[in-house]
């Protein structure tokens, strides 16, 4: 079934304890589209880029089945740029530079050819823009997923609460869930968030995996224990793309299907961090994915009789 | 099969954001024996207590099948005392007081009636004392598990390495695994630790669960997402006791059985933290345990076809 992904397509400069990349392609919608297009085609992208975004990267994405009609190209401005440095634990990072560039003018437009999409991934953006995308949809999708961040909780809480009322699933990290609800217990935070609107909630815990909540149910997906985490950038967006891409492929939304989807998101994220940027996602084979999936099963499944 | 548990029986004073307990029974071997005795009897306890350790607590443990022949009672000294205060995240704590008291003279003796035990849990103690217990065993057990802490890595590393060569399984937390190996990656740390002696390794990650390593295999058990964590004291020792108690019950050591045992340890630990001290462990019913176990299955098991 068809899927819309909304978010940034950008340049990143990244420093990790293992290396340095000066200007590589990044952005939430870039990572999400790479992961989702592994499962479902077309992925209908909504984003904004400047004159400097590499043509060959656009072609590579189109070749994977990512539609670019909803991607605005601004002729006289640069693409969004982020520079960050990871600490030794690879879970925390400092933002060194944020150049909004084209992102300052982003006003997402849903093309006519994108209408009737049944799955929508709203990447982390100003809440007003997320609402604008929902407003433009003529038919209610089967599933609208949103990502957000602490910055919007501090600067645009009213708008954020409006979006929350209109989405089916919120995806945030543990610190954000705590900030949004003022509850330290994630179980309490989850209950409060589900009262704010979303019927489903995913709390991402980085190297510690992710929790899926729905009513009184909870499912836990571990992160894959890797020997080396090379670059965590985009892991969360890759997780989101794998999650919604897999659901769009099977076309049916239920807690049971979401359990499988969250594992698929974790599988894709586990590859993302193995190399800089989208390198590993580009070279991924079906054999790689099946092998990792099998490892995930071995990692957590235990016999049901104790 | 019979099980020896070695460690402290003590008093704790605990402050958490949710309450305060001035002087309650604690100690690694107390928690381990409570959890293990849920599965297997007798549990053969080796510890040391002062004149002030409450008689009714000893009787309560004996009634659960915990043998006290290996517990030395010192008439003119106080029991080991620890006072700590937990931070709001409940994962970190400050030690405010450590009064060794009888523990300064602890010289564990394995009684004749404890010989031929097939399972041995060496709680966190000075490595020399752990070696002394192993030296006293006339027959090699099926499984010797040891716990330790960063303090011994910093003060008794040579002895610690000697114990490591003589145990089958090491149980440490993530920070300790990193300190012991100087590897930040837990997968790399695990490989290095298994080269130091133990064939099996469990890395505890508190609220983020635990990892079991053996050769190239890895299994992940989540911590149960609780609405309220009331007092984390003893959770690791309860986990250890549940783990080895369950293995001693089924009597067979294999990676598959350890997977089940680590879940059982997590189940017991999830109860321990719900109230102060051993309160919750004392009142636990079979129905409570079976219900939580079912919740653990729902929490992580997913269908094997994606």
CATH fold label of chain A: UDP-N-acetylmuramoyl-L-alanine:D-glutamate ligase
CATH architecture of chain A: 3-Layer(aba) Sandwich
CATH secondary-structure class of chain A: Alpha Beta
Uncertain segments of chain A: none
Number of helices of chain A: 11
Structural class of chain A: alpha/beta
> Tell me about the biggest sheet of chain A?
9 strands, mixed
Shape of chain A: globular
Q: Which oligomeric form is depicted?
A: homodimer
Q: What is the largest interface, and how many residues per chain? A: A-B, 38 and 38 residues
How many structural domains can be distinguished in the coordinates of chain A? 1
Q: State the fourth-level CATH superfamily of chain A.
A: Ribokinase
Distance between the termini of chain A: 40 Å
Walk me through this protein's architecture.
Two copies of one chain form a homodimer. Chain A has 306 residues and is α/β, with parallel strands linked by helices. The first copy, chain A, has a single domain, classed as UDP-N-acetylmuramoyl-L-alanine:D-glutamate ligase (3-Layer(aba) Sandwich), CATH 3.40.1190. Helix content of chain A is 37%, strand content 25%. Chain A has eleven helices and 13 strands. In chain A, the strands form two sheets. Chain A has a nine-stranded mixed sheet with strand order 5-4-1-8-9-10-11-12-13, with helices on both faces. A four-stranded mixed sheet of chain A has the order 3-2-6-7. In chain A, strand 6 (80-86) and strand 7 form a beta hairpin. The termini of chain A are far apart. Chain A binds chain B through residues 88-90, 184-188, 205, 208-209, 211, 217-220, 222, 225-229, 246, 256, 259-260, 263-264, 293, 297-304, 306, and chain B through 88-90, 184-188, 205, 208-209, 211, 217-220, 222, 225-229, 246, 256, 259-260, 263-264, 293, 297-304, 306.
């Amino acid at each position: 079934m068809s899927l819309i992904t909304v978010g940034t397509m950008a340049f990143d400069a990244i420093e990790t304890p293992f290396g340095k990349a000066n200007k590589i392609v990044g952005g939430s919608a870039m990572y999400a589209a790479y992961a989702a297009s592994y499962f479902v085609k077309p992925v209908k992208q909504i984003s904004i880029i400047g004159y400097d975004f590499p043509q060959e990267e656009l072609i590579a994405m189109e070749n994977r089945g990512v539609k670019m009609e909803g991607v605005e190209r601004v002729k006289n401005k640069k693409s969004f740029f982020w520079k960050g440095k990871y600490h030794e634990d690879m879970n925390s990072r400092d933002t060194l530079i944020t150049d909004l560039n084209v992102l300052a003018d982003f006003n997402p437009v849903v093309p006519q050819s994108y209408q009737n999409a049944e799955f929508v991934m709203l990447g982390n953006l100003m809440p007003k823009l997320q609402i604008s995308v929902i407003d433009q949809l003529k038919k209610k999708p089967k599933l609208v997923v949103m990502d957000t961040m602490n910055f919007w909780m501090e600067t645009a809480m009213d708008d954020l609460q409006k979006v929350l009322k209109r989405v089916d699933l919120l995806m945030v990290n543990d610190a954000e869930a705590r900030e949004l609800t003022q509850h330290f217990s994630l179980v309490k935070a989850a209950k409060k968030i589900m009262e704010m609107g979303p019927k489903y909630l995913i709390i991402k815990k980085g190297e510690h995996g992710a929790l899926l909540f729905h009513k009184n149910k909870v499912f836990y997906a571990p992160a894959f224990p890797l020997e080396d985490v090379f670059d965590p950038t985009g892991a969360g967006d890759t997780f989101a793309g794998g999650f919604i891409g897999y659901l769009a492929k099977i076309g049916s939304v239920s807690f049971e299907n979401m359990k499988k989807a969250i594992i698929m998101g974790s599988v894709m994220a586990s590859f993302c961090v193995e190399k800089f940027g989208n390198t590993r996602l580009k070279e991924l084979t079906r054999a790689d994915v099946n092998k990792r999936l099998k490892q995930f099963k071995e990692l957590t499944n235990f016999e049901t009789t104790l």
